[in-house]
Amino acid sequence: MTVLHTLNLTLRPCHPADGPDFIALERDAEVMQFLNGGPVDHGRVDPDKVTFLMPRGHEPHVWTARRRADEAFVGWFGLFPEGGGLAELGYRLRRDHWGRGLASEGAMALIDWGFGHAGHDRIIACTLAVNHGSRRVMEKTGMTYERTEYPAAPVPVAGSEQGEVWYGLSRDRWASRR
């Protein structure tokens, strides 16, 4: 993993010192609403048994995003190899950074790195169908809708009955857009 720079962000491989910032994200009900329906109660949750990533700063394939201007914590991005040239994109941003284009900016930096340096052939991402903000990020990066799935959730989240949408982008399509 390498340090990535965009116009507004620096993405660095995560570090244990980022753990408190990651935990603060999980305590924000709005940030977590489409993952588990609300804030994570760290006294009751076993991070090894949840269905979503709870990084603590030692995970491979996770970058911490900070503003270039002042190093303020923005969130995290991940590009997780799935094998066979496939990787899955993920991200989580602080609520006060929503709506500024930073999610798309960071996601595009990882997509470019994934195709240009990591050798991935295809990158996918998913979210709940009702998470319009995340869907818009995927679309802005060039990903296109592929399918909707209806997985059984251990704890139903509001909107999960509408399914989980999957988006994808191939290396060829990425290259043609550059």
UniProtKB/TrEMBL annotation:
<dbReference type="InterPro" id="IPR051531">
    <property type="entry name" value="N-acetyltransferase"/>
</dbReference>
<dbReference type="InterPro" id="IPR000182">
    <property type="entry name" value="GNAT_dom"/>
</dbReference>
<keyword id="KW-0808">Transferase</keyword>
<protein>
    <submittedName>
        <fullName>RimJ/RimL family protein N-acetyltransferase</fullName>
    </submittedName>
</protein>
<dbReference type="Pfam" id="PF13302">
    <property type="entry name" value="Acetyltransf_3"/>
</dbReference>
<dbReference type="InterPro" id="IPR016181">
    <property type="entry name" value="Acyl_CoA_acyltransferase"/>
</dbReference>
<feature type="domain" description="N-acetyltransferase">
    <location>
        <begin position="9"/>
        <end position="172"/>
    </location>
</feature>
<dbReference type="GO" id="GO:0016747">
    <property type="term" value="F:acyltransferase activity, transferring groups other than amino-acyl groups"/>
</dbReference>
